[in-house]
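Appendix B. Extra example for self-study. Work through it before the problem class; the solution is given directly after the inputs so you can check yourself.
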Amino acid sequence: MAEKKSNGQARYDELAYEKKNYFEVASEEERTAMFAYAEGYKAFLDAGKTEREACAFAVKMAKENGFTEYKFGDKLAAGDKKYFVNRGKSVVVFRVGTEDIEKDGMRIIASHIDAPRVDVKQNPLYEEDGMCFLKTHYYGGIKKYQWTAIPLALHGVVVLKDGSKVEIRVGEDPADPVFYIDDLLPHLGGEQMARTGGKIIEGEQLNVVVGGMPYADKEVSKKIKLTVLNYLNKEYGMCEEDFLSAELCAVPAFPARDIGFDRALIGAYGHDDRVCAYPALTAVVNENSRHTVLAMLVDKEEIGSEGNTGMQSKIYEDLMEDICAALGANFRKVRYASKCLSSDVTAAYDPNFSSVYEKMNSALLSCGTCMSKFTGARGKSGSNDANAEFVGEIRAMFDKEGVVWQTAELGKVDAGGGGTVAKFLAKLNIDTVDIGVPVISMHAPWELISKADLYSNYKAFLAFMK
Ligand code: MN
Ligand code: MN
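Solution. Structure tokens for the complete assembly:
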């Protein structure tokens, strides 16, 4: 028999707030659903390691579920299921709801599908001392030393001299070769290991090994380079000059895997931010809504949401305006009534690095998707600091639908910081708040998340669409 709580304990439980571990409070049925949902997510991770591939995956999934392509100027009506592609690198999947869009606004879930990686330079190929390399320029915030001595795959496109485009994806199939950035042996690493972390491996040392076999001809001086060029020419119709108009990148070659004896966690490249993009995509694709809902999967967040595929591009605003015009609605009225979940990952509290966190206001692994009222650095610089009223509204939505969630900020005050796409949507006078999955080892070649948090994020989006 359970002992009866004291009056004080009962009063404390009623008034005090404590985070809950979602695995612990989930029903057996819900736990099964978490694990099943994670399988689809892992397939998405493996298929979409670059923004182009993630975009193609989203389009395929949308099409399979009856969504059709939207072009500027098209007509729209309630019940329409559409997707809009921007240059093959970002995609907006949307449903037109039955509510009056001028009063109800749009429900927007904004995430990004680019991830930190090592991009190939425009004149990259050289041979030196038995090896052939590609020179690179890293993309996004990485600890450069983490990208050495691991198997890498090459992904991307090459626009050939004649204007045709070829796709390259080598290193994902177990039968494929992989690529490699070398590091120094510890025996000779004394001076290297005495350097500060940012200089253990320098940017210009991130050269990717792509060959080692000399071409069988005594006359040629660059024999290994010729072997590689000859291969690229036969396989892709390329010559060296075609690197000028190529977009190739090296990404970790390992697939997503369960972590732990209990399989509660997932290790993968690029959880940031595909762990939010996938729930956004599947929520809008799978579930009907009375609201007009948009899942935005955008590019270039890792370098400041720049360029015409990043969230700062006018194209997204133009698209929203065009949707309003197609529905005969006033864009300004719609914007002012809209709500947005800026869906990006946050740092999970890491007990092995506790000094940079303030535990009470850190995201705890498996305690659900995490709302960040604000992001930014120092005195909330560069942040969209959501209004308490809007946070209250979202909180009520989540609680009503039984979403297990938490709030946090990224690390201790003044320990560092980061930003998201939130501020670019808030600028349009759309109520916006950050929400996303806590990640361990963010921006490492292999990051860690909890299946409970992934599923909580999905449930949060469904609640938002109700
Ligand atoms: Mn992110
Ligand atoms: Mn990031």
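Self-check: Residues 117-252 form a domain with the Aminopeptidase i, Domain 2 fold (CATH 2.30.250.10). If your reasoning did not lead you there, revisit section 3.
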